[in-house]
Specification:
401 residues, 2 domains, transferase, globular, PyrdxlP-dep_Trfase, transferase activity, binds 4'-deoxy-4'-aminopyridoxal-5'-phosphate, pyridoxal phosphate, PyrdxlP-dep_Trfase_major, 7-stranded mixed sheet, Aspartate Aminotransferase, domain 2, Aspartate Aminotransferase, domain 1, 14 strands, alpha/beta
Length: 401
């Protein structure tokens, strides 16, 4: 059947089909089984280095058991929004647990991280307010800024002079001026200069909103996030986190003062008009917090793995963007080469994902690798061996031009 609909960006499918016909299409690979750090794809075991399962908790026995028990007690879905019929006592217990864990007065759980940003920012940034926005913010923040009625002004990535210029230019023109930035940048693994952001926010009376999707569970003491890492928890007005990474589940959280969270709870449309997190997801997150609090080996294992692999890449001569977190991007350069390398890695038993233009500037394609507390040193040694072979085979430059 021919389609009446033709999308305005028709080139995108042409490109995808060309890659598929050359067996180089690196997206939507259907994973057949998963044990966390090892997955099965194409009937072959591969070491997973493309996941955000930083703490490796997706298969932790206590977490799995809690998830199953929640299904048995509450069923598989809530079939309604928190606002109406979909609010369970475990949603509220989880919010209290997360507020205590993060060190904020109150927390609110959304059904995904994306919905958290869309709903929270469009609630916070009304027509008389504005956002001051890091130029490398995540797509969900970009979409949130399109949805919000207030204006958005960008500052140069992690550049505090540029941020100050934007603050000085806008602080007297708007009611609330909201600085919005990723805590850990999702492509480069770089950390936001949050201590400096807070200084400027204090100076100009701005509100601070941190998307800590990749920092929560990872950064700071017991993974309490980037704000804890810098010791500025009380100064962050809104901290956003996802459960789709360290917390082995799906959902998102916004934390802050009781009053501000209550305001978002009664105004964020993606919260009020979308079904609530399913019981199994809620129980999973609660169990992850318990495991983090009781197991003192997780974070040392994670950081040991990160240091091992980062040093390994440097020794082989890859450029890894001076990442400071478990996200370690490996510079490749050309888009086609990045897809060829991805295919090569897969054939050699390593599952990784490329990041191509326009997600990164043209000619700066990379392979975004990320590591888990549950990877073994043997697995990481194999990853490095395979990358070493790839470097030779594809002549990958060790510097970023
Ligand atoms: N913010 C950032 C920085 C992210 O990387 C992501 C997901 N990749 C999100 C928000 C959205 O989170 P979720 O997957 O839970 O919708």
């Amino acid at each position: 059947m021919t389609s009446k609909f033709v999308g305005s960006n028709s080139k995108i499918l042409e490109k995808a089909n060309l890659l598929k016909s050359n067996n180089l299409y690196p997206f939507f690979r259907a994973i057949e089984a998963s044990e966390g750090s090892v997955i099965t794809f194409d009937n072959k075991d591969q070491i997973m280095i493309g996941s955000n399962n930083y703490l490796g908790l997706t298969h932790h026995p206590h977490v799995v058991e809690a998830s199953i028990k929640a299904i048995e007690k509450y069923g598989t879905g809530c079939t309604g929004s928190r606002f109406l019929n979909g609010n369970l006592s475990i949603h509220e217990e989880l919010e209290e647990k997360l507020a205590n864990y993060l060190g904020h007065e109150a927390a609110l759980c959304f059904s995904t991280g994306m919905q958290t940003n869309l709903g929270a920012l469009s609630a916070i940034c009304g027509p008389r307010d504005c956002m001051i926005f890091d130029s490398e913010n995540h797509a969900s923040l970009i979409d949130a800024s399109r949805l919000a009625l207030g204006a958005t002004f960008k500052y140069k990535h992690n550049d505090m002079e540029s941020l100050e210029e934007q603050l000085a230019a806008n602080v007297n023109r708007f009611k609330n001026v909201v600085i919005v930035a990723d805590g850990v940048f999702s492509m480069t693994g770089k950390i936001l200069k949050l201590d400096k952001v807070i200084e400027l926010a204090d100076k100009y009376g701005a509100i601070v909103y941190v998307d800590d999707a990749h920092g929560i569970g990872v950064m700071g003491e017991k993974g309490r996030g980037t704000m804890n890492h810098f010791g500025v928890t009380e100064k962050v007005d809104f901290n956003m986190g996802t459960f789709s990474k360290s917390f082995a589940s799906i959902g998102g959280v916004l934390s802050g003062t009781k009053e501000s969270i209550d305001y978002v709870k009664h105004t964020a449309r993606s919260f009020m008009f979308s079904a609530s997190m399913p019981p199994s997801a809620v129980a999973t997150v609660g169990a992850c917090v318990d495991v983090i609090m009781s197991d003192d080996t997780i974070h040392p294992r994670l950081w040991k793995n990160v240091e091992f692999i980062r040093n390994g890449f440097k020794e082989i001569g890859f450029y890894t963007y001076e990442s400071e977190t478990p996200i370690i991007p490996v510079f490749i350069g050309d888009d086609l080469k990045a897809m060829q390398v991805t295919k090569f890695l897969g054939d050699m038993g390593v599952f990784a994902t490329p990041v191509l233009a326009p997600a990164v500037p043209q000619g700066e394609a990379l392979i975004r690798t990320s590591y888990m507390a549950s990877h073994s040193i043997e697995e990481l040694t194999k990853v490095l061996e395979v990358f070493k072979m790839a470097k030779k085979e594809f002549d990958i430059p060790g510097i970023h031009h």
